[in-house]
Amino acid sequence: MAGKAILRYLKSTKSPTASLTFKGTAYRKRAPMMAAFSSRGPNLADLELLKPDLTAPGVNILATWPAITSPAEEESDKKRVLFNLISGTSMSCPHVSGLAALLISRHKEWSPAAIKLAMMTTTYNLDNRGSLIKDVSHGGPATPFAIGSGHVDIQKASDPGLLYDIHPHEYLHYLCSLKYSSSQIALFDPNFKCPKRTTMQPGDLNYPSFAVRFKSDAHNVTITYRRTVKNVGNPPVGTYKVQV
User: Fold this and answer.
1) Is 52 within 8 Å of 41 (Cβ atoms)?
2) Quick one: which of 97, 63, 98, 100 has its CA closest to 82?
3) Which of 11, 40, 122, 189 stands 20 to 30 A from 138 (CA)?
């Protein structure tokens, strides 16, 4: 009906005009939600390093599409399009990569690790209705093993307040704590050798998340992990409180 009305108007005047008015975004369904196909934790290589790190938009993303392939990716489909709706980590990854590029342009002194960790510490976990983000795979709230620290928020990431950072040599010591062999370590740095006596445990990696393993028969156990942060907030003097 609307299309016919537009055609009638076009035929009724020699100089047709049109205008578009943005009236805001209308939310009908809960969003965001954790996709069922997204990979889950824990991190089997190291249970003390929580994975995934965070989540980003990755469902039904309008993206450019190669002309050599049909939108259905079937030989019988002869259609060719410039854009397609795509879902997957292949869509989340460019979102986060673009956000990282924006952060680097604003904070050129930050390391790649600091960029990622700033995004992790400034995520959100509530949807547009104020409820915990839903995990589509089971219908309940998404756990850290599905959503990581939460959904990325670029505006907050640009001003994280407290900044975590990890230097390359810290990653090497972390690999030592995981009992990597000298030949495995050499793949990352041929000149580095693990110290004979290392005091670092895997959980001491300067990551903004904690995953603690307890034995099934553990009682009254104390586990200590160490973290170092830098205050990059504005104003530079502030008070931060830890909540668990």
Assistant:
1) yes
2) 63
3) 122
Query: E-assigned strands of 4-133?
Result: 33-34, 61-64, 83-86
pLDDT bin (cut points 50, 70, 90) of residue 27 is low
pLDDT at site 211: 87
Check: CB of residue 125 under 8 Å from CB of residue 54. Answer: no
User: Would you state the structure tokens that stand for residue 235, as one six-digit string?
Assistant: 């104003």
Q: How many CB atoms lie within 10 A of CB 43?
A: 13
Tell me which residue of 36, 31, 32, 43 sits closest to 145, measured CA to CA. 43
Tokens of 215: 């034995």
Say how far apart CA 38 and CA 88 lie, in whole Å.
7
Positive or negative: CA dihedral 12, 18, 22, 28: positive
CA dihedral 157, 126, 35, 54 (to 10 degrees): 30
Joined together, the tokens standing for residue 145 give: 């093993």
> Contact, 14 vs 127, CB < 8 A?
no
- Containing 169, the helix (H) or strand (E) segment is helix 168-177
pLDDT tens, position by position, 126-156: 999 999 999 999 999 999 999 999 999 999 9
d(CA 190, CA 172): 11
State the pTM of this model: 0.81
Query: How far, in Å, CA of 164 to CA of 151, rounded?
Result: 18
